[in-house]
User: Fold this.
Amino acid sequence: MTAATQTLPLSVPLKQDATIIGLVGLAHASSHFGHLLLPPLFPVFMAEFGLSFSQLGALMSVFFVVSGIGQASAGFVVDKVGARPMLFAALALFALAALLASTVTGYSGLLMVAALAGLANATFHPVDFTILNQRVSTPRLGHAFSAHGLTGNLGWAAAPVFFATFTALSNWRTAYVVAALLYVGVLALMWLQRDKLKTQAVVHHEDTPAEHSMAFMKLPVVWWCFAFFLLSTMTLSVVQNYSASILKAMHGISFEAATLTLTAYMLCGALGMFVGGFVAARSRHSDRVVALSMSVAAVLLALCGTGFFGATLTMVVLAATGFAVGIGGPSRDMMIKKATPKGATGRVYGLVYSGLDTGFAISPLIFGAFMDRGWYGATLLGAAAVLLLSVVAALGVGRRIGTTGLLKPAAVA
Assistant:
């Protein structure tokens, strides 16, 4: 392969960068909204279909197993055909998953929804970061990553409110129909703005060894990144899937108040992402920023797990945990960018972010069993311990950044 990387103009108009960042942010919000296509209605499914916590956790395991396998593969496809076609396909699949959810009559139907939504989710991270890295000017990348993380958190925050609202106004089946229409609307907007989303594909010449495209997998730093995402996401999965039930069981908090606490966690995370964008733009040590923010979040989460606080203070501290995690988000993405060889953006982001899916898949199997045994405080304490392990992984990435030169850059069309 010969190297021919994209070079952006020295002075790119702010409007151009802002438009691209906004479109990618909306796409990312849509994918995170899809992560919570099922969990907000877990209490409804338990009552209507007689399901256990472990069965509900298995739904999310299916979602993220499919997403993880698909994401690792999607990175290669994104590098080959470009990001835009994969984005359109993903949004269409999410619309189909929501429509299917409106018709389910039992657990098998929910499993099908989880698998289809997982397939839809698989392409977003390699797609998003390929577009941002190719189309946004370098000085604004820190803020682009901040906006990307922020909009993802807003997607998470919107889902519980969305499904609670439309279920209250009509019923849960109508809520899913509206969600399908929402995805169709986002897809239509992306199509109208498709010129902003075009990316260059990696060209493999005939004289290039076939195994070269896999060479990035030999880099230890890539696997340290994978480990970080796996571990940090296991903690996030606990908060998303079980925090409402934990708050209700430990402190007698109503379902509505517990759901609002989850939304507050996501909104605080989004605020943290915003602040973290400025931190990432100025810090030369992304790994240290990530390690510090995750350490603070782990301590706060452990305090919630002790049961020492009353109901109100526990809700406040849990929301503050989201802010601490959010601070490290943009620095996390900058850390991954520094660890990514040229010409391998889609492949590396696809593999690394499949660690996120792996964490989401494993966590419900472990902590769902905790919940079924009534170990509510232990669930939060375990999640905090896993988050501390992710700090070790982040520092491991930092020590190995700079070794990516082992992989020669790929040619770009």
Remarks:
- Residues 1-7, 205-211, 403-413 have pLDDT under 50 and may be disordered.
- The CA atoms of residues 120 and 181 lie 16 Å apart.
- The first helix runs from residue 14 to 35.
